[in-house]
Amino acid sequence: MARTKRNLLLSLLLVVVFGVFSFTVPLPYTLIVPGETADTLGSEDGVPVIRIEGATPQPTDGKLLLTTIRATDPDVKLKLPDLLDAWFDSDEAVVPKSSVYPEGKSKKEIIADNTKDMVESQDHAAVAALNYLGLDPNQVKVTLNLPDVGGPSAGLMFSLGIVDQLGTQNLTGGKTVAGTGTITADGKVGRIGGVAMKTKAAKRDGAVVFLLPAEECDAAEDAAPDGLRLVPVKTLPEAVDALMAIQQGGKVPAC
């Protein structure tokens, strides 16, 4: 009996210690929420998001929204109470901190890396779009004006914005299309992070179609709002073909 009481007291003590530890020690997680969207066919502060020299942009309608997420500042140390609400809130997600912020890097280094990735993404997006259109990247200059967005995940939507303005097809059909995905110079679409929260940002800002890397279907399906059509693609030509098929009632890829 004495041993049983000692074991019980020890168990209770461990529970108390673990509880105190969990509520006071920072945990290696961060919160992400739906971020802002930006229309690659529109303008920011009166300046077109996509500026083109050496070719004449065509009038457009509809919107091509790139989507983002917002994450807790990397300097903030989150504890268990900070995370509990998010686990039960569909508009927030708890993710490993290392999946958003590389370990061992300062906030300044992270910002610099995100800016570098964004610049490279813009360059790849322009080359991919101009090659798709059969235009010479040395003769047509494309500049992208979106300084507040970091990372490479807007590449696909930048390319589509260029194709819409310099091609002969209206890609949106007058609707609001959103999406995400990296892109290489040869037009391959790559996976990104935070796709679930990006679908929510898309729906919030009026999108009816959401383009995404094919590998991200499972993550997107679990959280996508009702009324948002998920269209997985692997390349820029697939994305263009899918948008035209939507308008023409053709076969469209689906998650």
Automatic annotation (TrEMBL):
Family the entry assigns: Belongs to the peptidase S16 family.
Keyword Protease tagged: yes
One GO BP: proteolysis
Protein name according to UniProt: endopeptidase La
Naturally occurring in which organism (per UniProt): Yinghuangia soli
Swiss-Prot/TrEMBL keywords: Hydrolase, Protease, Serine protease
Enzymatic class: hydrolase
Domain Lon proteolytic: 147-246
Catalytic activity: Hydrolysis of proteins in presence of ATP
Annotated GO MF terms: ATP binding; ATP-dependent peptidase activity; serine-type endopeptidase activity
Organism domain of life: Bacteria
E.C. number: 3.4.21.53
Active site: S153, K198
Lineage: Bacteria, Bacillati, Actinomycetota, Actinomycetes, Kitasatosporales
Signal peptide: none
Entry annotated with the keyword Protease: yes
